[in-house]
Amino acid sequence: MFSKPTPAELNAPINPERGVEGHRNLFCGNYDSCLDEAVKRSWNSWTCTRCTLFAIQPQIESSIENYATQRRMA
Predict the structure, then answer these.
(1) Global pTM?
(2) I need a surface site. Which of 3, 8, 14, 42 has the fewest CB within 10 A?
(3) Helix (H/G/I), strand (E/B), else coil: 47
(4) Where are the alpha helices (DSSP H) in the chain?
């Protein structure tokens, strides 16, 4: 059985110069759903470090740029 994604609200925005990767798994298959949830709840920022799926890293067959451009389009 798969875990349900569980994003958590952050009080302050993430500093991109320090790296988003410490707070979010950008390669998670549920990233878009968690982002949508954060927007619906009007969160200033969010993290997925408390989620059981945070540590799961998918296999990326090519480059990060290709992965990013092949994400779902809403």
Answers:
(1) 0.66
(2) 42
(3) strand
(4) 31-40, 64-69
Amino acid identity at 8: A
Provide φ and ψ at 70, rounded to 5°: -100, 5
Copy the structure tokens of residue 54. 């945070």
48: which DSSP letter? -
Question: What are the residue boundaries of the structural domains of the chain, listed by start?
Answer: 8-69
Per the CB < 8 A criterion, the answer to whether 1 and 42 are in contact is no
Q: Tokens 């990013």 — which residue?
A: 68
β pairing state of 8-10 and 45-47: antiparallel
DSSP 10: E
**Nearest alpha carbon to residue 71 among 16, 22, 31:** 31
**Token pair of 48, please?**
């997925």
User: Model confidence at 1, in pLDDT bands (50, 70, 90)?
Assistant: very low
Distance CA 27, CA 57 (A): 7
